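Ticket #412: bound-state structure for 2-acetamido-2-deoxy-beta-D-glucopyranose.
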Amino acid sequence: MKDLRWIVGLSSLEGLVLSGVNLSAVEVGLQTINMLPSLTRLELVGCGLFMNPHLSQVNFTSLSSLELGENNFNNYMVPPWLHNLTGLHDLGLSSNHLSGPIHGLFEQMTSLVDLNLGENLFDASTLKSLCNVSSLNYLDLSLNDMQGSIPSEIGQLSKLQVLDVSSNSLTGVLSEDHFAKLGELKSLNQSENLFALNVSSWWVPRFQLRDIMMSSIKVGLLFPAWLRTEKEVQWLDMQNASISDSIPSWFGVFCYEIYFVDFFNNNLTWNLLEFKQMKKSPPDGNSPSTVLKSNKLDGSLKSFPSYIYELDLSQNFLTGHIPLPDVGQTVASTIFLILSDNHFTSSIPEDLCKLENLKYLDLSNNFLSGRVPLCLGNLPDLLVLNLANNSLCGQIPSSLGNLGQLWILHLN
Ligand SMILES: *[C@@H]1O[C@H](CO)[C@@H](O)[C@H](O)[C@H]1NC(C)=O
Ligand SMILES: *[C@@H]1O[C@H](CO)[C@@H](O)[C@H](O)[C@H]1NC(C)=O
Ligand SMILES: *[C@@H]1O[C@H](CO)[C@@H](O)[C@H](O)[C@H]1NC(C)=O
Ligand SMILES: *[C@@H]1O[C@H](CO)[C@@H](O)[C@H](O)[C@H]1NC(C)=O
Ligand SMILES: *[C@@H]1O[C@H](CO)[C@@H](O)[C@H](O)[C@H]1NC(C)=O
Ligand SMILES: *[C@@H]1O[C@H](CO)[C@@H](O)[C@H](O)[C@H]1NC(C)=O
Ligand SMILES: *[C@@H]1O[C@H](CO)[C@@H](O)[C@H](O)[C@H]1NC(C)=O
Ligand SMILES: *[C@@H]1O[C@H](CO)[C@@H](O)[C@H](O)[C@H]1NC(C)=O
Ligand SMILES: *[C@@H]1O[C@H](CO)[C@@H](O)[C@H](O)[C@H]1NC(C)=O
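RESOLUTION: The complex was predicted; output attached.
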């Protein structure tokens, strides 16, 4: 689009959404839109507003929703006229190369509910200045340039439901104070930072989280006892979280409710060698995944529920026979079964062929013996079959020739 002047005629306009329309060739684009004083909602996401979005006087002060994400502003500063939009509820400025101090910007925005500053270059002072915006429900400061520690005042944002500070370089220690009043919090993403969590074993958080994303921060050494009080968790990502402890038995008591559990790359041991608490099927439409790759699990595992979509127990010290799928009334929905790099012995159980939707089967680097079951050739969706580096013997069954979808076959 080259000319936007026609828009001035729309003097009653309250909502204007031009997201995805290329406005980079429009001269004085925002100035033109500024002639519409009744606007309450303006969305210009990804419009190529590569410019200093300057306004000497801002007219659309009735705006309650302003989305300017993905525009790559070239002056790296938050437009000063934003200060005057004190009635904003929603403000989106993600992916704009923005940096610089924004002191006081939010002081007057006492109705601000939803703030997305993700994928910019803001530093930790921004976080500090937001700790007073008590109306916030949603705060995204992911993928910025924040260093230093998180101010404990963030724990005063009592209406916060979603907090995302992931992928920054935040350091220091997060204590219970940082969560003091966060009773409404449902989704917490702190992944990919440098800080440590230090809370007591008796801590009972005020929140009931649904999504917990704490990969590559220091949660450990102990298994987080506070998880025991969290009854609504659906997503739990604690990859690479420096936990060196045994998985407590109470964890299994509710882990069937969590449809995504990822403890990749910790030092977990495991006393509870059964998924016996996981009898209940998950709600429809979920793809339950359990990833315990690269830990120190030993002992044997009798069975696993076949409604698990992905089970990855590779790079542990598991012994005994390959765990059997527990095929109940429901259709077996396991797609990924990854048990490589363990100490499993005996033969490959034919029961694995009951996993009729299996796409990825990796049993490599174990001590399996006996023959390759003929019935593996009956798994029509199999894409990857890796049985390498075991002690298998006998003929390779020609039924494997039925696997018309197969991409990768390792039998070495
Ligand atoms: C937007 O328009 C400008 C100028 O007309 C052009 O150079 C640019 O490639 C366009 N951007 C996209 C994403 O199409
Ligand atoms: C809006 O502000 C501009 C300055 O950017 C001013 O020239 C213009 O008169 C104002 N328009 C209306 C409709 O208020
Ligand atoms: C913002 O408001 C102040 C005081 O109401 C006014 O002096 C100033 O010109 C306004 N700035 C813009 C860019 O509209
Ligand atoms: C937050 O508000 C308090 C009291 O109103 C004030 O003293 C403090 O300077 C404010 N902090 C920030 C970072 O704006
Ligand atoms: C949480 O943060 C990580 C790291 O930035 C990111 O990959 C992931 O998409 C985020 N998850 C959600 C649900 O926002
Ligand atoms: C963790 O918190 C406890 C109790 O507040 C304190 O004694 C200890 O020094 C803290 N550890 C770290 C590493 O901050
Ligand atoms: C684990 O976290 C550390 C920081 O604590 C990071 O340097 C490293 O790259 C992460 N490793 C993986 C495999 O994610
Ligand atoms: C596991 O523990 C060892 C020390 O016993 C340590 O060197 C290693 O970094 C730990 N690994 C993880 C992923 O925490
Ligand atoms: C074969 O598997 C054994 C047992 O897991 C392992 O120690 C060894 O490194 C593996 N060899 C290769 C070549 O991967």
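RESOLUTION NOTES: The first helix runs from residue 29 to 33.
TICKET STATUS: resolved
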